[in-house]
Write a structure and sequence with these properties.
homodimer; alpha+beta; 7 helices; 5 strands; 46% helix
Chain lengths: 158, 158
């Protein structure tokens, strides 16, 4: 894929981000590309849909998976108008995307009050030192579902 | 909240995980609780809905936000049948949940082939050293949407 089409795909992601601002939505857009074609796209819908997980990258991944009827985007790449937050970065791994193209940086995002630096730090910490407290209970009951899963002949691995 | 009701909420999350295995879905369930009431719940729907982001915690957060018409779950807690992966952990921060109750551990999950250890490691790495390559382009064009956002009087901050 040449430089020109990479710029085209990124401009589409940027346009999604700008259009969203006009609707008072967060300034983020993303496009999923496979085989030189756009197979999914999205913009930030957190406030519009009351969904804190509706970051542009997540919306675009869900859109591509719906269109392609798969949960596996191997061979596809993401163009996002801003460097992904930890949630979106992890989602990119789960979706098996193969390259991340981005424009604005985390530092640019922090400068307009979208600061995911805190979450990157938290994830890297020992669980006991994180800001959100944890409490383990009933592992002896929960483990049964894992055993049932292992024994389930029809399970679909992912 | 006493020990007994914590156990009740966790048993509900565990039941969601077990019921899902019977449908050949991943062995994960989650419940969101606010003010002593269940306000959202979910199980892993990755394969059932072709959505790699549909982990139990994400599904439960989206369900609670839809029911409560908010993207902010401050004051709520999550009960999840298994320790969250990095995507779900970051989503828990974005949703502003205040406590994480879990049963099975990451190590239990890895033992039945759900291994998110790799993703935890990747997120902690310097971006240049990660397995998924990155490519920055067109920041000069993308930054315009951030400027527009800052200038937008009607923007809803989150």
């Amino acid at each position: 894929m040449g430089e020109e089409s990479q710029a085209e795909f990124m401009r589409r992601a940027i346009r999604l981000s700008s259009d969203n601002v006009r609707r008072a939505g967060g300034p983020f857009g993303a496009v999923i590309v496979k085989g030189g074609q756009v197979v999914g796209e999205g913009c930030n819908r957190v406030t519009a849909t009351h969904d804190p997980t509706a970051h542009a990258e997540i919306v675009a991944i869900r859109d591509a998976c719906r269109r392609l009827s798969t949960f596996d985007l191997s061979g596809a790449e993401i163009y996002t108008s801003c460097e992904p937050c930890p949630m979106c970065l992890a989602a990119i791994y789960w979706a098996r995307l193969e390259r991340i193209h981005f424009a604005n940086t985390k530092e640019d995002a922090a400068a307009v009050d979208f600061d995911d630096h805190f979450i990157y730090e938290e994830i890297g910490r020992d669980p006991a030192d994180r800001a959100i407290p944890r409490n383990q209970l009933l592992r002896d009951e929960a483990i049964k579902a894992f055993e049932d899963w292992t024994a389930h002949a029809g399970r679909i691995r992912y």
